[in-house]
Model the fold of this input.
Amino acid sequence: MRAGFRHRATGLWRYHLDPELVRDTQRNHVRGDSESQVDVAWRDIGKPGTKIRRRPDACLWCEFEWMGLSRATSGCQEQHENGDALNPHGDLVAVYSVERKRAALLAQAASAPYTSDMTRCGTIVLAGRPNVGKSTLLNALVGEHLAIVSPKPQSTRLPVVGLLTRDDTQYIFTDSPGLLEPEYQLHEAMRAAALRAIDGAELIAYLHPLAEYPAPELATVARLEKPPRAPVVTVYTKSDLVARPPDVLAVSALTGAGIDTMLATLRDRLPESPFHYDPDELATQPMRFFAAEFIREAAFEQLHEELPYSVASEIDEFREGAEPVYIRAVLYVERESQKGIVIGEGGRTIKALGAAARAKIEALLGGQRVFLDLHVKVLPKWRRDEPSLKRLGYAAS
Done:
């Protein structure tokens, strides 16, 4: 030890450091040397409760009781090298004077409580085949209608991000497009978006209907060349429709059954990290994105058969500061005959579609009135045209 520390000093420090600094600190402890890259931590030795905060990538708890004796120094080296101060969590929790017996040291280390006020935060992708309940579950998790919900499959074309903050944990959920077999360019763009979400997630919630238990491997469903790098938690959906087998994580987005268990399971696998967003936020995408999605959702509700799959929506103008909020939007179809169906006799269909979309937008805006100026245009074969897909935001530009 340095000469300045030749006295008995007892203190509790919490280090929030990156892993390399933690390793450096541990190496210096092994050498019995209190000098390290985190020398600031030693300035307050002898002041219990001092908190040293750097980066939240790692958390190291230490309680030091240094005697300032040469034999204590050598004893501490030996104990660190033998890993005597490691608890089952793998964190350095206590270094006691070597005057104490080895058995006492091990007993203290084993019984030392592992506590941390460090928050957890991470991205969780909801992945699975089309129509397994990803969007319905996202809405249930965040407590707000963000994602399109339809009994028709393949309604989710772009990832939708929803936020849930509970106590010390922030969940960043991504509702990804279904893992489908592409038939045309739009499908290929949807599949690519789903695979990007899986590749970029820190945790994967692989959703599969409970009625089709057991679930095949995600790598098989997604046709991945190798298993995903993120941990996979299989979550069975629609548990309100069938009996649940034992030892299965199953949820019902409609009744809420199993959601708390699912969140607890996911929390345990999220990394320690500060929150990425304000705890009051529910979404990361702008309001005009949701306006376009809600218009398309209304098209799925009002139109029939295959026509909704030929509809895309685009926001031309969004004046949120106005009263009422002014939104000018365009519904694109692929053929002139489809345009007539969307408008309807005397404009009845487009009016009903607009009223349904307006109500959804107003609900997300907290009751603000909306004036929705809706138009219908033809964009020939847009689902199979790469430039059109890029224009509408479905394909990477």
Notes: The longest helix spans residues 348-364. The first strand starts at residue 9 and ends at 17. Residues 1-81, 83-101 have pLDDT under 50 and may be disordered. The CA atoms of residues 240 and 385 lie 41 Å apart.
